[in-house]
Design goal:
With 270 residues, this protein is α/β, with parallel strands linked by helices. The protein has a domain of 179 residues: Aldolase class I (TIM Barrel, Alpha-Beta Barrel), CATH 3.20.20. The protein contains eleven helices and ten strands. The strands form two sheets. Strands 9-8-7-6-5-2-1-10 form an eight-stranded parallel beta sheet. The chain has a two-stranded antiparallel sheet with strand order 3-4. Strand 5, helix 4 and strand 6 form a beta-alpha-beta unit. The two termini are 14 Å apart. The relative contact order is 0.13.
């Protein structure tokens, strides 16, 4: 059974934080890491505690996970070229560079033309992989694909805030975008077992198709296709170095826990 590539999405909103997480990902046996360049334009901040919630916490033995707020920063607050140089020097693993726009749940604060320039600069920095959304305007996307040709492999991504459609529609989306990159990444909002099953059914339907894909969800059931990625012949699995019960509710999975699960399920030998 082929082993999918394990990619750790690096935590943090500064280059230093990302470099520390990259070292942990390397030690955990990741094959590659994803750098979310758009997160350099936000500051992570915990919300002010609610007195009623604080009182409830004292009565609950299980600590409640609190989502951080991401505070936008000015566009000129980031030295893109300097950040790329530091990341290139400090990360040993192959890197997927991503600069996610707000329309796909990202944080980049600038106009689309400015974001395209960031992506072009990232490609020219010599990165191994670049994430290019499938909904980038066709002329701009072709230019980026030309920049990447022979230099960087392409993850063609689609992030939807909607729940997954039918398995046949998901399969159709993957097949329609088969020429858009080396790996097609599709991620939906997932809110339970029915969504998880739709994602699983779509991935199962693509087995032995020759397609290179990564299908997943964010939310309950979103991690099913990650856990069973070898069985589903997925090309790539996105993971995290985060730990805790909250990541399962978010549809994510820790990189070390994933490899342990694969061993227990006999998807790979120890």
């Amino acid at each position: 059974m082929p082993r999918p590539l394990i990619c750790v999405t690096l935590r943090g909103c500064t280059v230093d934080e990302m470099l520390k997480d990259a070292a942990m990902a390397t030690a955990a046996g990741a094959d590659m890491v994803e750098v979310r360049l758009d997160k350099l334009w936000v500051v992570e901040q915990m919300p002010e505690p609610d007195p009623a919630e604080e009182e409830a916490k004292r009565d609950d033995r299980r600590p409640k996970y609190v989502e951080p707020d991401f505070i936008p920063q000015p566009l000129d607050s980031v030295d893109v070229q300097g950040a790329l140089e530091s990341l290139k020097q400090g990360i040993d693993l192959p890197v997927v560079l991503t600069c996610r726009p707000e329309r796909q749940q990202g944080h980049y604060p600038g106009e689309e033309g400015q974001r395209i320039e960031v992506l072009s600069t990232a490609i020219k920095s010599g990165v191994s992989w670049i994430d290019l959304e499938v909904d980038i305007e066709s002329k701009a996307r072709k230019s980026l694909m030309d920049d990447a040709s022979g230099k960087a492999k392409v993850v063609a991504s689609l992030h939807s805030s909607e729940n997954p459609p039918s398995a046949s529609e998901i399969i159709h989306d993957v097949e329609d975008n088969s020429d858009a990159g080396d790996i097609i990444k599709i991620c939906y909002r997932s809110s339970g077992r029915h969504d998880g099953l739709r994602l699983f059914e779509a991935a199962w339907g693509l087995r032995s198709s020759g397609a290179h894909y990564a299908i997943m969800g964010l939310g309950w059931g979103g991690d099913w296709t990650r856990i069973h990625a070898p069985l589903l012949e997925q090309a790539l699995v996105y993971t995290t170095m985060d730990k805790g019960l909250h990541i399962s509710r978010q549809g994510r999975i820790n990189a070390s826990d994933l490899q342990t699960a694969w061993q227990l399920l006999e998807y790979e030998t120890a």
